[in-house]
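Hi Y.,

Following your request, here is the sequence exactly as I used it, all 304 residues.
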Amino acid sequence: MLDLSMLTALHAKHREAAALPVADFALGAHRFDFAKQAYLMGVVNLSGDSWYRESVALTAEAAVRRGRVLHEQGAAIIDVGAESSLAHAAKVDGAAQSGALVPVVRELAAAGLCVSVETYHPDVTTACLKAGAKVLNLTGTTNCAEIFREVADFDAGVIICFVQGDNVREVGDLDLGRDPVAALYEFFARQIEAATNAGVSRIWIDPGLGFYYRNLQDSGARIRHQMQVFLNSFRLRGLGWPVCQALPHAFECFEEEVRVAEPFFAVLALLGQASLLRTHEVAKVRGVWRALELVREAGDVIAS
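Below is the corresponding structure, written out as tokens. Let me know if you'd prefer a different format.
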């Protein structure tokens, strides 16, 4: 049962971690000050296999249009992907991904938007960075040395996703032990060292809650895992970098109200001190985020 006493006990147990700062940085003209606020990342899916239908754009024109709308709704970063992470989705090779992504990235970047590309292919990474992407949303664990060097060479940033497998499409059962933060911390420490040694100086870490492990197909088990990770993510602040959280949708629980799922999970992510929220529902999540800001401001007034 999630209640105030649980949150109070969690904070008291890890009070020092909650107070640790994380790095601020800029990507070109886009400045991120995580000590002052969290930011939103809007999603554009170029794969027809993607489950979240509102995010799917089947032409470059539609993708650019959605990216512009998400930006106007408040997204600081637009994340574009060409392959669904669903287990049954078709695999898309690097050439096909680049062919779909590059025109969209080029036009959004030319319009002044901060663009992220989700991939685990080194060749797709290079093509999209050349086209103007400022962030790589890295969803794999192989070829990382090569990929990190490319990110550094283009003076870009990287979202390092936790993946227990070679990439998001090749995962089995998830095993994080009794305390998931310990395993996450160890994984990210290794990846951060590799990235910084390659010259990367702008990093987010993502616990990988949007991925499809076999033993989390039961909605109850998956949601319990996601809630635990959301609320404990502030304990990763010791790594020195901001946390990005991909907000899930939990259709089995929300059913016809599924579009309010991500705003619900946004509350948990913000309680866990996430700095970047990846969402298909930018406008709705921004509304929740602003409401929480007003509650915090009111609390500060009362306390003073």
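The beta strands are 25-27, 30-32, 39-45, 77-81, 115-119, 135-138, 157-161, 203-206, 244-246, 276-279.

Thanks again,
Q.
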